[in-house]
Amino acid sequence: MKTLAELAQIREKMKDKVGIREGVNGVRIVVGMATCGIAAGARPVLNTLVEEVSKEGLSATATVTQTGCIGICQYEPVVEVFEAGKEKVTYVKVTPDMAKRIVAEHIKGGKPVAEYTIGNYKI
Amino acid sequence: MIRAHVLICAGTGCTSSGSAAVRSALTAELEKHGLTEEIKMVQTGCFGLCALGPIMIVYPEGVFYSRVTAEDIPEIVEEHLLKGRPVQRLVYNDPVVEGGEAASSLSETAFYRSQMRIALRNCGVIDPENIEEYIGRDGYTALGKCVTEMTPDEVIQLILDSGLRGRGGAGFPTGLKWKFASGNRGNVQKYVCCNADEGDPGAFMDRSILEGDPHAVIEAMAIAGYAIGADQGYIYVRAEYPIAVQRLSTAIKQAKEYGLLGDNIFGTDFKFNLDIRLGAGAFVCGEETALMTSIEGHRGEPRPRPPFPAVKGLFGQPTILNNVETYANIPQIIINGADWFKSIGTEKSHGTKVFALGGKITNTGLVEIPMGTPLRTIIEEIGGGIPNGKKFKAAQTGGPSGGCIPASLIDTPVDYDNLIAIGSMMGSGGLIVMDEDNCMVDIAKFFLGFTVDESCGKCTPCRIGTRRMLEILERITEGKGEEGDIEKLIELGNTIKATALCGLGQTAPNPVLSTIRYFRDEYEAHIREKRCPAGACKALARIVIDPVKCVGCSLCSKKCPVGAISGTIKSPFVIDQSKCIKCGVCLASCPKKAIVKK
Q1: pTM for the full predicted model
Q2: What is the Cα–Cα distance from B107 to B113, expressed in whole angstroms?
Q3: What is the C-alpha end-to-end distance of chain B, expressed in Å?
Q4: Given an 8 Å threshold on Cβ–Cβ distance, is B136 in contact with A34?
């Protein structure tokens, strides 16, 4: 270690990784990962969400977790976004590509992707 | 891409309850489900709740599992890590919360709520074998700040201003110690030593810090080296702490690789090297002069002070010696400033103190509290109270050098000066809780027995005086006590305190003197009535059969290993007191609970 800058570089790199252990904070992105969700393809969606959140540098304000079956198995994979003081947003039939847009527009931009929400989904 | 971290405690407590098997089961199970790219397993240091080990915690949710076994792992992986359903039966249930609601996060549990973690801030959070995780939690920032932005005198002034006092027991101001050793920088060889020879029975604070956050100690020692002008440090750690030794060695190696130890640290002229010296298990080697004598390669014996180590220490050179926990506070003080540290704790005792809770307490483990926290909070809230509905009788602090705090003083705020005022001492942080079944004479005998064994024999008061005291105590607990024994113990104790050579001897009578001070009636019961009120002294115990309750089933006489019980079926049996060895087997065997210990 020859300079403080080198130390700062490692610190920034690791902060993101260790930061996950400080617990849930900010926005919670929850993926339904019960049998129904997994069967419908929730795993790649979950992984895409984790990757995108990290790529966009949102790890400090958003966490991605899983949950069990919430009872709307026909709509799986389901992704719900919780934010303090705001109404919960429920996305249905989410694909990895949709997940990318959700992170970019909703989590980063603050504007829910209306067309993916359960209210706008037509069976 | 990692989406979750599974932290498993790899401290000594959880290792002995089987966390290594849990770790290997988890590795295998993660591989089986193809989750190795998504979920990271981290082995950490002590979380503090050692009684409930092995401990496992899953982030980002922060779900806290206790008493996890290897057999539970497939369920945790399939249900929680794959499907997001925490395995409720293994989730730590906070016993204090009404209705048994599982605490949603660790910091909300009664065990953690009143704690404040400075020395333990990284224990149970980072992987102690990964230097980058330590750096990610602001590690080595303090060292960088010191060597590039501060002069050595500024560093010492900051530590002085913070009011940090030695956490090893005596509570000497750390900054002052550093200042005494700071003269003539660059012209004389100086040393920085770390006392990790934690020997008090029941104390494991230092071990847990070394196991969970070794870099904090390394960083602080380098800072101390910069402050006093030393380029060599030694960590004296007991060989009985194999995990701590191994993690320290790894950490020192990594720090060297990253250029945080060695020459030209942070591109400056400052150089500092660190080596480990193993202690072979003598209690006296935790005394500062004996410790240094041992590092030099001689038999660990204390020598008179002055000269103090700051003037003439290791190899005759100016040396500072601080305890592990003291060092662990230093990087945080440098980063956050003296005023921050002073804002925590009481007027004369700043910051926090780590205690190892043991004895008759529900949550055996490691806790860190702000100075001035009442003993009641530590025992009843954080410690979860006394198990089996028993009554709190006393707490012993300071190990064999300390004294006891009786139940009547349970609201005492715990800091250096308050504890000394009530005849105990902070000590290194062992806190042994006793309930109504503990005999205070027996406790005093236990601690004195320990110091008699560990006395190095160099000075007469300690070598012979403590042995005479022990002989009196043994007599008392065997029912052979005489009038005047208590006075003799007090006189001997005070003489030893005044005349012994080192801290070990000077404090050895404390457990006896403090139990006499608060529980003199128990001593008197032993001596005058030949009775042990707590029923703990075997020789004084009498086990008798209540003839009213006894139905004459003969079960007890069949169980008695020495054939001391006799009688005729269907009429009351009797115990022959001359044969009885007071083993208590009959007590458990009686279906009518007719046998009692008096």
Answers
A1: 0.87
A2: 6
A3: 66
A4: no
Q: What is the Cα–Cα distance from B560 to A38, expressed in whole angstroms? A: 62
Fold of B4-109: Glutaredoxin (3.40.30)
Chain A residues in contact with B83 by the CB 8 A cut-off are 33-35, 37-38, 66, 68
Residue B347 vs residues A123, B14, B339, B343, B368: alpha-carbon distances, Å:
68, 37, 12, 9, 18
Mean pLDDT of chain B: 92
Architecture of domain B440-528: Up-down Bundle (1.20)
Please tell me the distance from the alpha carbon of residue B363 to that of residue A15, in angstroms, as a whole number. 32
CB atoms within 10 A of CB B90: 19
CA distance B579 to B583: 11
Q: ipTM of this model? A: 0.79
Of A2, A11, A24, the CB nearest to B61: A24
Query: CB-based contact (8 Å) between A21 and chain B?
Result: yes
Residue B462: enclosing H or E segment and its boundaries? none
In whole angstroms, what separates CA B198 from the centre of its chain?
8
Listed in sequence order, the residues at least 6 apart from B460 whose beta carbon sits closer than 8 Å to its beta carbon are none
Strand segments (E) across B329-484: 352-359, 365-370, 392-397, 403-406, 430-435
Cβ within 8 Å of residue B468, ≥6 positions away: B492
Domain A24-120 superfamily per CATH: Glutaredoxin (3.40.30.10)
- B359 vs B434: CA distance, rounded Å: 6
Task: Look at A24 and B265 and tell me if their CB atoms are within 8 Å.
Answer: no
CATH number of B131-341: 3.40.50.11540
Listed by start position, the domains of chain A span 24-120
Distance from B65 to chain A by nearest Cα, in Å?
Answer: 15
Residue B277 β-bridge partners: B236
Predicted confidence at residue B25, as pLDDT, reads 95
- Residue-wise pLDDT tens digits, A73-106: 888 899 999 887 788 899 999 999 999 999 999 9
Structure tokens at B45: 């240091």
Domain boundaries, chain B: 4-109, 131-341, 352-435, 440-528, 542-597
Mean pLDDT for B26-50 is 91
Inter-chain CB proximity B125 and A23 less than 8 Å: no
